[in-house]
Amino acid sequence: MFINRILALLIGYLNIRFRGERVERFINLCLQRGIQVWDVYTTRNGTVVGKTNIDGFRQMRPVARRSKVSVRIISRRGLPFLCAKLWKRTAFAAGAILFFVSLHILGAMIWFVDVDGVDKVPASRVIEAAAELGLKPGRFRESLVASEMSRALCIKVPELSWAGIELTGTKALIKVVEKKIVTADPRPVGHVLASKNGSISKIVATTGKSMARAGDNVQQGQILISGAFQVDEEAEIRYVHAEGIVEARIQYAATAESSMRRMVRRRTGESVQCEELEVDGTVIMIKGPKAPPYGLSEEQVKPLPLLWRSLGAPVEHRIRNIYELVEQFEQVSFEQAKQEALDAALQQANQKLPPGVKVDKHIVQVELLPDQNTVQVTVIVETIEPIGVFSPIVEHPSH
Amino acid sequence: MPEEKPVRQRRSLKNSVDKLLTDVLELPKDLVLNLPRVTMVGNIQLTLENHRGVILYTDSRVRVAVEKGEVVVVGQKLTLRSIYADEIIIDGLILDVSFVS
To answer: Cα(A204)–Cα(A243) distance, rounded to whole angstroms?
Structure first.
């Protein structure tokens, strides 16, 4: 069996040769005396060889004599013989021992130092600092105290907030975390003020403290988000660049009037036609009256196309129609008057709106004035628009 | 010889009792009757238990004494792999195993 072979190698065995007539008898006698013999086989030249252990060989002498078999050792195998051989070769043994000892010593040293996690601080600086603290190639691992080393490393390189040392084999990995240096906000401190009068619909302060709530009516110039505030009553005042979203409802009002009974001008149907030539600024009448023959009139001028005019001659030929007009009162319905007034009021109000603003709703107030003739329409356009403007604080202790 | 007779009788009586035991109680015959047990692994290894010693060993023929006779193993390149007091392992190319009583 395999385990027996290993055991035999450990305790040592001998290859032996039997010579004689009665090898079988010899083997049986060995068995009787408890001498182990194994791997018995016949070689090509007819001699029988086998194996036995060291003790067995010692006990074989009387057996061999009795069975008249001569026993010779061919070779010696196993650890005891190997040791004996090594004992004779001192230099070789010493070399082997030296090899293992040096392997062990070199394996216990640090040979590589690496840095992980550096961003702004150069890795070479961390390695140099570690070397000054003793973490460098050639140092024994056992003599390192990682916790002390990492603390000392953080003090040595002030940009580091944490340093950890990981030892794997002959490699030391320094893991570091850099400090995040918080830079001061370069923007000036100040408040967010209301740019218009209005009713707050939404206020969200991202920096600073909001001073108004949704639904509050605010005046132009009022502080909406304060850049100077206290966290609680005893804390000192913090100054920040206030920022946030402030939206408010702003109303734009416009009023327009329209009469139900009004004077209108109409054409009577009478008209005259004049024909005239204009040459270099001088008007030459060709046909018709020189002045309009009606008290109230309106004109319609129609230029006649001239072939030679396109050549750039400074002459214009035109026909002028003059229509007679008559004035009369007209009664319009309330609805029509209201619509006209509403259109006018809306137009006025829309002119007041800043460009690109979101209109939320229209409020229309219609009123018939005491004269029972004039319809007054007031339109209030309500918009939702951002009203927050930043205004720096001029008197500031730190500025 | 007159003294031998009762001995032989006693032996045969013991044998018949043993046989009865093994047959009725199904005990292993090799243990009770001291018979050899031959185990073969293909034709390359033979294990012989309950032997009484090697009678002959050559590389083509091995004779092993057993209770009531001998086992003859014929083959090529026969090797006594291991020899213990009650077990012999024979390696080699085994051609024939016979029981001679």
So the answer is: 9
